[in-house]
Amino acid sequence: MSYTTRIAQVTGHLNFPKGLLAGQVAIITGSGQGIGAEAARLFANEGAKVVVSDIDAEKAKNVADKINESGGSAISVPGDMLDDNYINELVKKAAEFGSGKIHIIVNNAGYTWDGVIHKTTDKQWDTILALHNTAPFKLVRAAAPYFRVKDGEPRNIINISSTSGLHGNAGQANYALAKAGVVGLTKTIAKEWGPQYGVRANTIAFGFILTRLTAAKEEGAFITTPEGEKVALGIPQAQKKARAGPGEEHADIPLRRPGTATEAASAILAVCSPLMSYVTGQTISVTGGRNM
Predict the structure, then answer these.
(1) Strand pairing partners for 172?
(2) How many CB atoms within 10 Å of residue 207?
(3) Less Cβ around it within 10 Å: N or C end of the chain?
(4) Global pTM?
(5) Beta strands 200-206; 104-107: pairing state
(6) What is the Cα–Cα distance from 59 to 90, expressed in whole angstroms?
(7) Is 120 exposed, middle or buried (0-12, 13-18, 19+ CB in 10 A)?
(8) Which residues are bridge partners to 224 per DSSP?
(9) pLDDT digit string (tens) for 132-146?
(10) Is the pLDDT of residue 75 over 50?
(11) Residues 86, 111, 146, 175: which is the catalytic one?
(12) Closest CA to 214 of 253, 254, 157, 159
């Protein structure tokens, strides 16, 4: 399909009978649960062939299985984004799944390893930057041959950021720097691969979304690093209450509530869709109005 035909679809009758992402192949990292899993489900509902990437093989398989059982198309390719060999395998299997094509990358995988500046270890620092900056870069670089093409088909890269990256956050120097960094990576991709190849690249910065990263730390969620160290996830209840301040809960959010994983994933879908075909190099805040 030619570029002008696609534009006519978008600006004309907005008719997508096979889905907004029909025929496109999408890699979504960290899609074994939470926002990533919801994005995988929504993408598949809109006709995409989804590659479910997650460090947890069982969760990745469950997401892919549910998509296939519902009539969609998905495969699971589990592995560690900090492993260069895995990144190459992920791209190879995605291209095979897509008959030689990859159209979308959503760099969503990640977690927090919080600590105030004077107590943050080198390991905390290096791991979070490697996961949120270096891994997305290496995945995009490995997939370059499938994006630097001129076949008239859309190509999209979405890098997931956070309000911590836009505004900073106490106790998250490593995460804030990493999430600020993906903004620069996104803009560089847009400037390098947009002119000749039409690749769109955008950042989505999430605010308070209900996931294991924003749940109470007392609930006991954790992730295990490749070295076997357990990293507690979530926000301590006392800290959450202190941030909220007196009065109404979520008073700092104009919509007065946190967002859901489905709402967050819907924003990713929207940015990848042809409905936003003239949007690139942007950082889109999905926050319920917080920090505006």
Answers:
(1) 115
(2) 23
(3) C
(4) 0.87
(5) unpaired
(6) 16
(7) middle
(8) 230
(9) 999 999 999 999 999
(10) yes
(11) 175
(12) 253
Residue 47 has pLDDT above 50, yes or no: yes
Q: List pLDDT tens digits, range 224-259.
A: 776 677 676 766 555 555 555 556 788 889 999 999
Decide if domain 3-210+256-286 falls under CATH 3.40.50.720.
Answer: yes
Q: Please give the pLDDT value at position 6.
A: 54
- For residue 175, indicate whether it is catalytic: yes
pLDDT given at position 226: 65
Assign 175 to helix, strand or coil: helix
Q: Could you state, in order of their start, the residue ranges of all structural domains in the chain?
A: 3-210+256-286
Nearest to 189 by CA among 264, 104, 127: 104
- Tokens 């919801």 belong to which residue? 38
Which residues are within 8 A (CB) of 31 and not within 5 positions of it... i.e. 6 or more apart? 37, 39, 40, 50, 52, 53, 54, 60, 63, 106, 108
Task: Map 62-112 to HEC letters.
Answer: HHHHHHHHCCCEEEECCCCCCCHHHHHHHHHHHHHHCCCCCCEEEECCCCC
Checking phi first, is residue 53 left (phi over 0); if not, alpha (psi -120 to 50) or beta?
Answer: beta
